[in-house]
Amino acid sequence: MQVLYEPKQAAAESALLNELSADAPWSLIERFTTLVRESASDDEQAAAKYIANQLTKFGVPHKVYEPELFLSVPVKATLVIDSKEMRAKTPAFSISTSVEGLTGEAVYIAKFEAGRTPDFFDFTPASDVDVRGKIVVVDGFGGPPPVFHFEERGAIGQIYINPGVDIHWSICTTIWGAPDLDNHHRQPTTPVLSINRQDGDELMRQLNAGRVEVTLHTELKEGWFKCPVIVADIQGSEEPERFVLAHGHYDSWDVGIGDNAVGDATLLEIARIFHNHRDKLARSLRVAWWPGHSTGRYAGSTWFVDKFGLDLARNCISQVNIDSPGCRWATEYYDVSVMTETEDFAIKTIKDVTGKVATGDRPHQAGDYSFNNIGISSFFMLLSSMPRELIDEKGYYPVGGCGSNIAWHTENDQLEIADKDNLMRDLKVYTASVQRVLNNPLHPFDFRKSTVEFDDVLNRYKDAAGDDVDFSPVFDALDDLKSALDELYSKAASLADKSVSDDGVRAYNDAILELGRELVLINYTRHGRFRNEPAMRVPQLPDLAAALDINDSEGHMRNVTRTHLVRGMNRVAWAFETAANIARRAVATIG
Fold first, then answer.
1. Domain chopping of the chain, boundaries
2. What average pLDDT does the structure give for the chain?
3. Where are the alpha helices (DSSP H) in 416-554?
């Protein structure tokens, strides 16, 4: 579908790219080296004022909101073994212990690795070790899934041994954004802390020698805090109600230059240049900076979705998450977060701008991807990364940002983690991709690729379930959807050079947005529109993923799983049927 991906306003794209400058971005980065942007802190307020003042200086229309966000801010932590104190960090949403701390028997969970892959929300369930009343010791990062897993099995505390000399800050709740009546009970109820590899090895030596009693001391601030959310609004001229949302978080652990001062700088420059060339924009651009990312589990972006959910559902074309671009040694583009329908467009844009071959990856249930429950087609989260060979050469382990630099979520994430040349290269990628979505007559998303993904996934689920579940209704609905999409996309060539306001173009684009509202929702959520998923891995077509486990169950639970799958089948088949009807209505309108 090259007709969808080529820049239709090449002159506008050239003007935008030519105006890019490192001056404003680098000034922001240098200013942020002086600010520890912990949410609800004075430094976070100072950072928000800096961004807002720069937008005012550049004449960019913007608003600063001050919602109350539910936050958990680590204060201090220590681990005590035989009167010896070990340095530790407690993740956000661990609980605070009493002054005496929590003392208990430590038990190591063998053959378990928490977050030792780039997907920090994927993990291997523990073996049958009895953890009731024990403090578990785990090799890896203390993310939401393992913390929830061990709490459910009766652990009274948890210790995570990070892979290197540094200890990484983290967050351990599975609740996405502010809690509500459906999920508030999932908030952690036990203390959690992390130690480094050296101290972890010492703890392991003692555990191997016999029974070990440990004491955890944790202290956190928790509650509802007012935090600034900054949103710039740059209006297009032909279809101003429709918009792209470019966004990232401006709070940080310590000064957080690679995560995410570089992203904040990128957003500021995007706001500046698109405002300067607003006369060339067909559609609108919103640029947003979120607080509460690291201490609120994406509290800022989730508040925005809650507050403006209806407008997002009606008018948001796509969301572009900007986190940790332009970092030291980050010169390659692999495992770039892209939804299936956006992949070809995003990969081609990276190649056009940088000359580099990129590869895509299904977006993790992470970052500020708070928009899946609306059904918004999305691309990018982290962007450029260090070459894999260089990572191996340096002996680095996987981390969740900073272009693969292991300074991520540590005190070492300082100015040297940012790279001006890499930042400018990534800025060009964001600029070109946003320009094309704003100005190309047709939205550059191909849902036929999604149906190929669905076909593969359904066949895998069907093979796993065997004769337990009849998958024919969902395959029939998918076949009909494929046919309807073929009809819709066959119209693209005749519309590609028409104006954004053309009736046929509008009908086509309306259909593309409506398709996303159905197919993104069914592929990334279990709980439905306007409801948040937990901060845990969401498999493809999650309503049917239990098919992979049905043969591990028997008796009552096998019937429970079968019932779950039948209900999931109805939901998925209905979504496919609805999407097919959307495509055919558009075809009839286009004529």
1. 2-67+227-439, 71-223, 447-590
2. 95
3. 420-439, 447-465, 472-489, 492-495, 503-524
Backbone region of residue 445 per phi and psi (left: phi > 0; alpha: psi in -120 to 50; beta: other values): beta
Fold designation for 447-590: Transcription Elongation Factor S-II; Chain A (1.20.930)
Q: What is the CA radius of gyration of the chain?
A: 24
Nearest residue to 201 (alpha-carbon basis) of 124, 111, 86: 86
> What does the pLDDT look like over 300-338, one tens digit per residue?
999 999 999 999 999 999 999 999 999 999 999 999 999
pLDDT tens digits along 401-426: 999 999 999 999 999 999 999 999 99
Q: How far apart are CA 575 and CA 568, in angstroms?
A: 11
Q: Which fold has domain 2-67+227-439?
A: Aminopeptidase (3.40.630)
**In this predicted structure, what is the pLDDT of residue 60?**
98
How many degrees, rounded to 5, is the angle at CA 160 between CA 104 and CA 73?
Answer: 95
Q: Which fold has domain 71-223?
A: Glucose Oxidase; domain 1 (3.50.30)
- Distances from the Cα of 540 to the Cαs of 148, 449, 521, 544, 546, in angstroms? 22, 14, 11, 8, 11
- 71-223 and 447-590 in the same fold: no
In this prediction, residue 127 has a pLDDT band, given cuts at 50, 70 and 90, of low
The one-letter amino acid code at 246 reads A
Give me the residues paired with residue 157 across strands: 135
| Integer Cα distance of 397 and 450 in angstroms | 32
249, two tokens: 């978080």
pTM of the model: 0.96
Tell me whether residue 395 is exposed, middle or buried, using C-beta atoms within 10 angstroms of its C-beta: 0 to 12, 13 to 18, 19 or more: exposed
